[in-house]
Amino acid sequence: MACNVAILGFGTVGSGVAEVLDMNKDSITAKTGKEIAVKYILDIRDFPGSPYESLITHDADQVFNDPDISIVVETIGGAKIAYEFTKRALSAGKSVVTSNKELVSTHGVELLKIASDNNCSYLYEAAVGGGIPIIRPLYKCLAANKIVKIAGIVNGTTNYILSQMKDEGISYEDALAQAQANGFAEANPAADVDGIDAQRKLSILSTIALNGSYVAPDGINTEGISKLTLDDIEFEKEIDCALKLIAYFSNNGEGKPSVYVAPHYVSRKNLLGSVDGVFNAIMVEGNALGESLYYGQGAGMLPTASAVCSDVLEASVTDGVPAEIRLWSEKAADIESYGEIKCDIIVRLDGRADQALALFADYEASKLSGNAILVKGIRHKDIEGILEGESDSKWFHYLG
Amino acid sequence: MACNVAILGFGTVGSGVAEVLDMNKDSITAKTGKEIAVKYILDIRDFPGSPYESLITHDADQVFNDPDISIVVETIGGAKIAYEFTKRALSAGKSVVTSNKELVSTHGVELLKIASDNNCSYLYEAAVGGGIPIIRPLYKCLAANKIVKIAGIVNGTTNYILSQMKDEGISYEDALAQAQANGFAEANPAADVDGIDAQRKLSILSTIALNGSYVAPDGINTEGISKLTLDDIEFEKEIDCALKLIAYFSNNGEGKPSVYVAPHYVSRKNLLGSVDGVFNAIMVEGNALGESLYYGQGAGMLPTASAVCSDVLEASVTDGVPAEIRLWSEKAADIESYGEIKCDIIVRLDGRADQALALFADYEASKLSGNAILVKGIRHKDIEGILEGESDSKWFHYLG
Description:
The structure is a homodimer.
Chain A: E1 2-8, H1 12-23, H2 25-32, E2 35-42, E3 56-57, H3 60-64, E4 69-74, H4 81-91, E5 95-98, H5 101-117, E6 122-123, H6 135-141, E7 147-153, H7 156-168, H8 172-181, H9 190-193, H10 196-209, E8 221-222, H11 230-238, E9 241-250, E10 258-267, E11 279-286, E12 290-297, H12 301-317, E13 342-348, H13 353-359, E14 364-367, E15 372-379, H14 380-387, E16 394-399
Parallel strand pairs in A: 1-2, 1-4, 2-3, 4-5, 5-6, 8-10, 10-16
Antiparallel strand pairs in A: 7-9, 7-11, 9-10, 11-12, 13-15, 13-16, 14-15
């Protein structure tokens, strides 16, 4: 029995999908009991000389009107054409597998509903953490838990830049240029360095953690890494931390869920503090399980294709039975406003740690060095007021 | 709609299952669309005063003959009564969820077949890594990969003992006594300290990694931790490693798969080297994904119950559709004999590292300190011969 797949968008991930399905054809056939064959690759470009040249089509109708196609892989990216094509495929009862975090985080509510209405699947394991299993562990393996906390390094580009600043002792600008030269950052790096990519991924993780109560990306307060200096990076040694861009979710039962993206000084005692380079890692705490961590390659051709292809296998096995659909609610989640969120912070007042302690006397605070203190459980809105007038003061989120 | 569950064996994990199903009742009902209710708890003991006292029964027939029971949780342990009860439940078309690594590793081939024949499920996520999602990630999220390597810290008791020896500077015997006093080791610790528990878990992981080709536990060469000295532990600082009991699987396409359990010096650059105390972590390398790592609490009441309960949810959702069944083959996997397995080792000849280099001149070897060298790609059977006559020589496996 054959299962025919169409790949939409033959870029890095799309071509990786074709390669992985070829490379592991025998074991995939053995596992699923059917041959999974790529029948079309839809792209506006030609790929002369590619081994997949004969599968390239520019005709979307050919793909969507072919009843032989039961699974569509959407690796176009963005939320325009990809959105139209995904709706069209799902409406035709074809399961869609995607790595597109922008689309899932923006239109997941609608697309999952269309899939459910048409008895097919919309699977997005690859949208967060690249190849790292995180979506399925979160909503299936931890299904019996309430998700209390998520803290993730979910953007490889920014983690690479921060690691390079540390290892090479170079500025943010130089590290970014290096990342671009090495293909780890795009010519326009805004979506990565401004934290937008992390925001989209956190939107997806938070929505699942809240059982489908939708956390829209644009409602998540987000701070990127572009203002970080080499001095900030080098300071991490003094307090035995590593500076990381963290996507943070907390729902500990006290008040509304907290959701934000920001640089954090992460304690070296936390495994997240040892995750360097383009790697991603996500810590998930369940109320029964306690803390768990998922680590691996969060981007790249084959790692991301690994997750996409595993979803293709899932869709092929459950063909006609829309497994793995858990709808997202149209009602937006009621998350805490950023100012009201309580957090732990590192306050740096060089040479004046004791003075800093005095400033935060109303809080649980402790001295880390002559230059910095740790303050626990302070509301975002209260921080700036206390530090007002303290020239050269700086503060950062802290993750223990 | 209700889904009735029977728990067999009301020990640590069994009582944790009842507690988690209670504690998260609302969210579980919301997720599954049905109320999951414990109807019976089968145990030879009474539990006067327990909130679950009224559910206790001593009558197995009552459980197995009740058509209302669709899911049976087997948390008895061992491979005798648990084996009989599991066969009986599956034969009656009741899905069975278990944390019993001994039973799954010994009789998995037969029990999965009985489940399949009776259109129900036999789920064992909790049998390896306690609450850590590993079974489902391995065979579902990495389904499009060939599994190239697994290296796991899968036994919390031994990891706790090794961590205590390091942190407290105490002997193996004292650390074991401490672990027993703290409830982390049993009165008869043999299954843990001799590596048998790790062997069973590795049997399960290897069988899945080989697409169901069965790797029996008693075919896995296994060395425990009872011969390790405080000197061995303290030596790890000199070579920037951590001594860990590693369950190891490799199938890199060169020859037959390698499978064994042994203490390893793990490089501090490897995340596994930072996993201390009762925590577990499992590194899995797929040929598309590359390396990934899964970390969390590998034992304990609520963490293990977390995995069991998530499988219960899975069984309740797929009621009547035996999802998640991938049969194991009756034909045993053809794994490499221990002597023929090539491995990386640390050889210690105190004060005579150069002499050690000369002994292993035919191999890729490098000096780590004045006392130790690293030798790569040597067959187990060749090691002892080379070291014969070298008094005070010691060797250990190495994981980079």
